[in-house]
Amino acid sequence: MSRAQQEQKLKEQICDIGKRMYMKDMGAANDGNISVKISEDSLLCTPTGVSKGFMTPDMICKINSKGEVIEENAQNTSPSSEIKMHLRVYQERPDVKAVVHGHPLHATAYAICGKPLNKQIMPESTIFLGEVPVAEYGTPSTEELPNSIVPYLQDHDAILLANHGALTCGIDLMNAYFKMESMEFYAKLLFLTSAIGEPKELTDEQVSTLVQLREEKFKVPGRFPSLKSFQK
Ligand code: 13P
Asked: Which atom of ligand 1 is nearest to the CA of 49?
């Protein structure tokens, strides 16, 4: 596949993910943004101020690692207002190739209440997320937001943003997007089980076994909080 074809495929994938986020209550109206690294100094990212549920590939922006447009697109769109936050993730985490920011309904409700997703209630969320911390509030589009996530970036691929939403990152677009989906499912489960009664948590031993499985058998890519940090 030529470079141009690869880029076109990534643009289509960004649009597809945007549509799913919009349909799955992870980004109302114009909310959310997505980016992917295509070389050391170039990225594709969603345009600002448009619904991520209705994007077409010719709206996707091509930028450099400073966030400057390096190739105009057919729709003359400008990069996401949150691009600084995405760029900070790539700076701090050279292993990351894609970043997704959304306002998933249940996870954002936890972020607004300042409650991390830290109850180990289900094997998949323990394996794929561990726990999800809440970063301090930062004004959208300013340096405050990138600064707020730095303390969590080395050990987490999924972070709640206080009074705002959530951010996930991964080794490719699907990996970053699936973490957003898993996190929202986990938040919904926590919310529902807390409404029904007291969610029964996995024991420390069960959690250790799952973490061992993640590392030795599933070899899940990404960064996760240490076992100690989420054992009771
Ligand atoms: P953009 O449309 O500029 O990416 O902003 C959407 C958003 O969710 C801001 O937090």
From this structure: 2
